[in-house]
Design goal:
Layout: E1 3-8, E2 11-16, E3 23-33, H1 38-48, H2 58-67, E4 72-80, E5 83-93, H3 101-117, E6 121-122, E7 125-126, H4 128-143, H5 149-161, H6 175-180, H7 183-196, E8 199-204, H8 209-221, E9 243-249, E10 254-261, H9 271-282, H10 288-296, E11 302-308, E12 313-320, H11 325-340, H12 346-363, H13 367-380, H14 386-394, H15 398-407, E13 409-418
Parallel strand pairs: 2-8, 9-13
Antiparallel strand pairs: 1-2, 3-5, 3-8, 4-5, 6-7, 10-12, 10-13, 11-12
Amino acid sequence: MFKSEEIAPGVRLHFLPTDKYKTVTYRVYVQTALGQAPAFTALLPMVLSRGSSRFPTMQAIAVQLAELYGARFGCDVAKIGERHCMDFYFEMVSPAYVRDGSELLYQGMATLLDLLLNPRKGANGFCSEYVEQEKANLENRIKGLIDDKRSYAQQRFLENMFQGEPFATYKYGTSDEVKTATPESLWQHYEAVIAQSPIDVFIVGEVDSAAIATSWERAIAEVRNGYSGLPPVHMQISQKEVRQVRETGDLQQGILFMGYRTPVTYSSADYHKLLVYTGVLGGFPHSKLFTNVRERASLAYYVWSRVDATKGFLMINAGINPEDYDEAVQIITEQVDELNRGAVTSLELEKTKRGLVSAFLTMQDNAMAVVDRGMMELVNETERDIPETLDGIEAITIEDLVEQGAALKLDTIYFLEGQPIT
């Protein structure tokens, strides 16, 4: 469990002291409201990673990382419920394994702080060269989404299922919004976000937490100006009838998504029930969807289900031939109905529990995965340690699965047809 400390309004450090890993991992999340200037928020990590006051070029950054025994730095944006998060990571060797480890750790932290809080500036905001280059890169990424057919279909599915909700927003925004960014306007967005948005810093490894807190508190004081709270992490807008959408794309097979709303979220007491329900349905090779849709009926190239427990929905995805659409939807629906009636063997339930327990235990071997879980708990304002989670999974019964099925509501069926665009 992380030990948290607030060093300024809206700015928290989360420490996990451990000698389990041979590295020290920093992960910094800057939260904004999803749907508010998403392209600007997506641009910021890209521009920040180009250069800072001390390390003005990517080459200078690379040289510094090499000096830190091959430290790694990266960044992106992520959607967590109705939050749009800038995500920065910095990983370096643990001070226990090198000479002058404490000094090296301080240099690594100073490097990260400079990259985040002291960007390279131009005449009126960010360096104009970097902004223009990263605008072009982001536009290419947005326009290139259609070339990754499964990701494109998933985004279109989300846009249809969550019409009128921030969650429909693509995490990289739109090309039109990217075009409006200037060095000045992007700098203004940066200053506003860094000054008032929630910032959470996760540190995993053997560190001097007091010294780190002092350094971060001193650095963050120079850029903070109040604190602006965010809307709830999830919202639900239910519709009366199932929305069915079929679109065409330049691909050979078809891509099917089915979305179910559920009132159960990560913070709910029934979270473990929903987790096991999703696993029995389509989380593993022994699950109902894989066994019946892919293996027995031979209707899918792949098929799986997963739950977004922050937003509160269950998603099924399958790759099928367009001519098999009706039959595939029918058999998938039958598997959901069977599970909702309790048609589950004790072996199916036991295999699912073992698979989930193994996944959670394996997660503990990866510092980045541990931080992912910590951020999920923070956003959902719910802490669950691993023993509690494992006990919760083991306690689930078939009756619990039936209960979860009764709460599910089919919301959207989206199908990207495998027909060439004319």
